[in-house]
Amino acid sequence: MSNIGSYEERIKNFSWEIAEKELDYKKGDIINIGWHCTDRICQMGKANKTALIWEGHAGEEKRYTFDEIRKATNTIGHFLRGLGVKNEDRVCLFMDKIPELYLGFLGVLKIGAIAQPLFSAFGDESLFVRLDSAKTKAIITQRKHVGKVRKLLERMPSLEHIIIVDHDGLKPLKEREIAFDLEKAEMIDKFEIYPTTAESPSVLHFTSGTTGLPKGVKHVHYSIMSQYLTAKWVLDIQDSDIYWCTADPGWVTGTSYGIIGAWSNGATQCVLDAGFSAEAWYKFIEKNKVSMWYSAPTAIRSLMKAGSDLVKQFDLSSLRHLASVGEPLNAEAVIWSEKVFGKPFYDTYWQTETGSMMLTNYPGMKIKPGSMGKPFPGITAAVLDEKTFEPITEPNKPGLIGFRPGWPSMMRTYWNAEETYKKKFANGWYLPGDKSTIDKDGYYWFVGRDDDVINTAGHLVSPFEVESALLEHPAVAESAVVSKPDEVNMEVVKAFVTLKPGFEPGDDLELEIMNFIRKKLSPLAMPQEIEYLDKLPKTRSGKIMRRMLRAQEWGQDIGDTSTLDDD
Amino acid sequence: MAEMKDIVLQYVINEYLEDEDEVLSYDSPLISGGIVDSFSMVSLKRFLENKYKISIPDDKATPEAFDTVNKICALVNEYIK
Asked: Which residues on neighbouring strands pair with residue A444, listed in sequence order?
């Protein structure tokens, strides 16, 4: 029997009080995600249950019980407090998927500070704009990434502490750096957790928009209500499960479901800190007897590419339930999954700003391959007319997805960008920026983005950010960045550039520009193709017509070109 | 072959290795070891194609084929005329 039971019954009788009751929360109580994910689980009699099974790329393994993660998170909190980090200070977590990332996240929350996880592959400029926006006080990182932090010191006077979790003592620490070795630290058993309440800020994840710099999405401790219940009902996490969320906590899935959803449910979860390889993934599932697997379409399509025969070489019979998030899961992937694993991937739709799943497929519900499913109980969703923002009642007619605000994990604002936050609403609806249809049975079907943001492998890339970075390359005079279709990643970044006098187009220059962006921003933002143009298409007022270039890449009608400056 | 290995290894060290203290060999795991991710693999493939004037089909440029310098050089050699 699945945790959700009957979806229809849940819809009829739903109240967020269900989550509040299960988490022993009453309005006005102290609520702290760090405590709920560790101390509370221990108090429920699961102190000796395995919380984390971690494996590194060389096969090394570490295991932690709930009591051990309770003490480890206390210890990290204690260390940070000793440095003078206070409630609501921003602490960045800039690490690979090592245990310190997961434990550090909860340690930060335990002292009431705001956890700011950032993807460790970010280049120094991507790191800078996010740290600068948050005025981050401390960063927890690894030796291999500290070089990127050092480059920012002059521009980051607010960054007081650089905490290195794997300092080996071979080279001296530099300005503002301090070593912290969790394995050698004295474990703190009794710790005074900061008395955060429902609306106390908890997590700051950054996301990209079409224009402007990345925005910090502010979440609060009360978000755990949504993350706990969606993990329980949609991922169907059960006490005996071995759960694997493949997402990196540098992104929201990795925190909402790779930490909070899993551990607030007292689940044993495993983490593989290694680059993607189909064989390694199957081996990991087989070895750890993974039963609940939450992954992403790009990974699933990469597994498809590796072939069905490979699957047969492993015993994957432990798999009980599979789910996917990041970008729309194509029907072929769902059908393939049913064929090779004997069960489909259940697609889930949500984003950084929503903090938890909004539209999903539920255990026991009929899956329509390619559909995002139906709204989670307690979520009022609609497809809206693009002009009036009124719900469209006609089936299969595309419009903007809208959600009525009020679910627990909804972002509270964009960090220092209240006006931008307000623009995300119309006619009382929150607009996530995606288009969809609803069929006659109430299933949602993804149509596309409502803006120019590029969704590559489930991560949003701002064309504006890439265009700005391109202009810093000495050869580039002008740039325009759009998405182009990609079989595995759904979309990838493509750049159109014009060159400054004295530079000649060529393969070597293309590679140089690609690497320039990769190091400055991130591998995700690196254009996978650069096309040289003599001039970019512009309106008569000088605005680059990105729309035309995008249509060209997608084989679509380029639309109205009457404003094109054809000099 | 030996020269190619050194060229590829040096390129990986210069372009992708963040930890300056890490020592790489011809058999160090690049993709599974998290040194080169799947997106960065595109630029590594482009480097090889430019340098050796070859074209590596996308379906041959797999994480497994790019996982070590030795494997990369074996793949490149298949396409050098």
From this structure: A373, A438
Q: For chain A, give every residue range classified as CATH 3.40.50.12780.
A: 7-436
The closest CB to that of B39, out of A58, A170, A526, belongs to A526
pLDDT band at A328; cut points 50, 70, 90: confident
**Which of B19, B33, B42 has its CB closest to that of A275?**
B33
Per-residue model confidence (pLDDT) at position A563:
67
In chain B, residues with a C-beta closer than 8 Å to the C-beta of A508 are: 50
What is the tens place of the pLDDT at every residue in A195-242?
999 999 999 999 987 777 899 999 999 999 999 999 999 999 999 999
B30: containing domain: 2-79
The SS3 of residue A101 is helix
The domain that holds B40 is classified in CATH as 1.10.1200.10
ipTM of model: 0.95
CA A324 to chain centre: 13
- Every domain of chain A with CATH number 3.30.300.30 lies at 454-554
CA angle A209, B39, A547 (to 5 degrees): 40
Query: Which residue in this structure is represented by tokens 């108090």?
Result: A43
A/B interface, count of CB pairs below 8 Å: 79
What's phi and psi for A360, nearest 5 deg?
-155, 165
Neighbours of A138 (CB within 10 A): 24
Q: Pick the residue of A122, A170, A173, A511 with the most B CBs within 10 A to test the interface with B by mutation.
A: A511
The CATH homologous superfamily of the domain defined by A7-436: ANL, N-terminal domain (3.40.50.12780)
Instruction: Provide the shortest C-alpha distance from residue A366 to chain B (in Å).
Output: 34
CA A410 to chain centroid, in Å, comes to 15
| pLDDT tens string A81-123 | 999 999 999 999 999 999 999 999 999 999 999 999 999 999 9
Provide the domain count of chain B.
1
Question: Are the beta carbons of A6 and A364 closer than 8 angstroms?
Answer: yes
Q: Are strands A529-532 and A459-461 parallel, antiparallel or unpaired?
A: unpaired
Amino acid sitting at position A65: T
Chain A, 522 to 551: residues with Cβ < 8 Å from chain B are 523-524, 526, 528
* pLDDT at A566 (0 to 100): 64
Q: How far is A277 from chain B (nearest CA, A)?
A: 6
Cβ neighbours for A416, distance < 8 A, ≥ 6 positions apart: A133, A216
For A508-527, what is each residue's pLDDT tens digit?
999 999 999 999 999 999 99
Query: Residue A358's pLDDT band (boundaries 50, 70, 90)?
Result: very high
Select the highest-mean-pLDDT range: A403-412, B13-22, B36-45. A403-412
Residue A502 CB-half CA count within 13 A: 4
From CA A486, how far away is CA A492, in angstroms rounded?
6
What is the predicted pLDDT for the residue at A87?
A: 97
CATH of domain A454-554: 3.30.300.30
Spell out which residues of chain A touch residue B50, defining contact as CB-CB under 8 Å. 507-508, 511
Q: Which of A384, A393, A394, A392 is nearest to A426 (CA)?
A: A384
